[in-house]
Design a protein that fits this description.
With 229 residues, the protein is mainly α. It has a domain at 69-223. The protein has helices spanning 46-55, 67-92, 95-98, 101-116, 124-151, 155-171, 177-185, 188-223. α2 (67-92) packs across α5. The chain is rod-shaped. It starts with 45 loop residues before the first helix and ends in a 6-residue tail after the last helix.
Length: 229
């Protein structure tokens, strides 16, 4: 095999240190090639990137919820919401005013979840979902208390209060069918239908108000985070 100059491709006799035509050196020292360890990029693996991104200290709000951690927080917040609701209702004698506590329960559940999740903020949508679950727990606890009151000695007093309110409303109405409607509602089947309708309305109120509170709480926590826009 011919030994050619690497610069001018002229034929060079082996062992000659310089090319006789262009003078280029012909002795080259081969250096070992050190292989670099392969570096795995996080963005090559979407699963790894998701977990790294969720546990980072960036200001981006996450939209996924770890329900194994969130459910206990929403249950505690739901129980605290009903406790505060009953306390305010007993002090102010205004049950409608006490419903303003329900959004606070949704916001409180978001606060508990964020604190247990390395203070990583959540999106408004995730906050609304946490608030909705909190509202569901609040409604369940509230229904248990209401059923206990209806099963106690206060049942007759509660029914008499409802009857009196309906009769007063019928007396103020000029419709002759209003009195018959009151009598129909106060039957066992009428009371059952009334209770079911009331439960549906209260469930809707708890879910909506608590969801709004959760979304607002998530937005406030994200805004109050250092480095957030």
């Amino acid at each position: 095999m011919d030994n050619l100059c690497h610069r001018c491709n002229a034929e060079v006799v082996p062992g000659i240190p310089f090319c006789p035509q262009c003078g280029a050196p012909q002795i080259r020292v081969a250096t070992p090639v050190i292989s670099q360890p392969a570096v795995t990029r996080v963005d090559e693996d979407p699963v790894s990137a998701r977990f790294v991104g969720s546990s980072s200290d960036s200001g981006d709000a996450i939209s996924t919820i770890r329900w194994s951690s969130a459910v206990p927080k929403t249950a505690v917040s739901g129980f605290a919401t009903v406790t505060l609701l009953i306390l305010i209702a007993s002090i102010t004698q205004l049950p409608a005013l006490a419903l303003l506590v329900v959004p606070l329960g949704g916001a409180f559940s978001v606060l508990l979840y964020v604190r247990s999740n390395n203070k990583q903020p959540v999106s408004a949508g995730a906050g609304a979902r946490l608030g909705a679950v909190t509202g569901l727990f609040s409604f369940a606890v509230y229904c248990l208390i209401a059923v206990a009151e209806l099963s106690s000695s206060q049942r007759g007093e509660i029914l008499n209060t409802v009857r009196k309110s309906l009769e007063d409303a019928a007396a103020q109405s000029s419709d002759p069918q209003a009195h018959n409607l009151v009598q129909m509602i106060m039957t066992p089947s009428g009371i059952a239908i009334l209770l079911v309708l009331a439960a549906i309305i209260f469930l809707f109120i708890f879910l909506v108000l608590s969801s709004l509170g959760g979304a607002a709480g998530a937005a406030m926590l994200k805004r109050g985070r250092p480095g957030s826009d």
